[in-house]
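Bench log. Compound arrived from synthesis this morning; before running ITC I wanted a structural hypothesis for how GDP-alpha-D-glucose sits in the protein. Inputs:
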Amino acid sequence: MIDDALGDRSLVVVSNREPYVHEYVEGEPTAERPAGGLVTALDGVVAKTGGTWVAWGSGDADFDPAVAPDGEVAVPPGDSGGDPADDDRPGYTLSRLDLPRRLVENYYYGYSNQVLWPICHLEADPVTVDPAFAPAYREANRRFAERAVAADPDVVWFQDYHLALAPQYVREQRPDARLVQFWHVPWPTPEFFEICPQGTELLRGLLGNDAIGFHLERYAANFRDCVARFVPDAAVTESGTIRYDGRTVETYASPIGVDTERVAANARSDGATHYWDRVTDRYDLDPERSIVLGVDRLDYTKGVIERLDALAHLLETNPGLAGEFTYVQKGTRTREGIPAYRRYYDEVRDRIADLNGAYGTPDWTPVVYIEDDVDDRELAGLYRYADAAVVSSRRDGMNLVAKEFVAAQGQPAPNAGLAQADGLDRSTRNRTPGALVLSRFVGAAESLCPAALSVNPYDVAGFAETIRTALTMDETERRERAASMRASVREDDIDAWLATQTDVLTGESRIAADDD
Ligand code: GDG
């Protein structure tokens, strides 16, 4: 338990996104929990420690000064994640930063998402280096750091790529504090990282930490290679630690996972079944047809266009599959302040319209596109009732959708009352768990393949053939592959990840420095 391990040391979590959506009720700010597995898990951790969470006040939403006040909000224990019966948790303080619009545009939509995000995902084309971006990134990181220092922390836990400079800024003021960062996206090779004009500055910023975590050892190794190449006064030791500025910095690999019980419970919930019923009615889905599912933030790294191309190729080369399945794409709009993302939405819509126009028939629409907001239970309904899922990221740090699909599958048949109410025989659906088609370029492939069917999303013919394999796989093979994937998702679940983070945050895992 992190609270026991920390003792009386105070924990401060710093992330770009806040864990709560806030509303004003009679002039008073109230906390309301948004959907999302990771924030829920972190929220539970901070609630146990009674610490502070520093975050930008308006998250990923379009900036709205009216709902983005600056300052502290007390998050009472009752609003926090974890077991509601656990009533001795102290709750925590949410310290919200109201960043000016100009800063948000240049730091968040600019440097974070048009420089760092594409570079970490090995995408050179979308990299846009506007001269205003880097100064804004420095300023925003300073503001996050100042807030963290103001909370008088013993331990600071930074999340992700928006905050590469903040650790150094905190270190300058609190040389005694333990600083740890988890990097949720891949880390590129030195050859690719070199594109970044501020590369060395970013590395020095991150080396302000005592430990830096990645999903995979491969990403950690790339990070160390970048340090060795671009920070001349740092030394990477044979044991994988880094000597820098008179300190030892650890790098570690820790694959993030999902709360398998929570996802499975959501999948079994009435909310999941009712939502699936609504989707079935609204899109006139035939229960005899297989359902293939995609769930993505609409981000070019997720490979949605490549997937639609593969589906078109599949239908072109396998006319016998026409009418045999429906592909359901759930798309969530994201980063709408960036023109490349707006163009991506249009491209996805156009491709879907083209595909349906080319291959659809009066009684069959090959692709159903859902852009509505759905909560976690509704999403679990899509996972549960799909016969196969496709995750085809061009690059992805881990990819939680793949793991959530595995955790939601193989539920008992839904209750017979519902099936009888509208004449659909759902009892025949999902008695066997579904197949997963998974890009080899996502972190999750390391543990889920070969039980998941591995694809190269750039290889349109191979990708199409793999979707065909998933659609035609016999029951025994589906069961065997699903059992293997489920075991792996359970082993690397969110609790395992949090246990590793707890060890690192408290210094338990510290690697003996070999000071060579
Ligand atoms: C970054 C890294 C890494 C999606 N649509 C809806 C919805 N979601 C939820 C999913 C899942 C999450 O969003 C997406 O997580 P991913 O891991 O797939 O991708 P990123 O957002 O890019 O996350 C990634 C992750 O950080 C954690 O370290 O795995 O590689 O890029 O949880 O369920 N949730 C709801 N409605 C939706 O329509 N409720």
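What the model suggests: The chain has three domains: 2-97, 101-256+496-515, 260-492. Residues 2-97 form one domain.
ITC booked for Thursday regardless.
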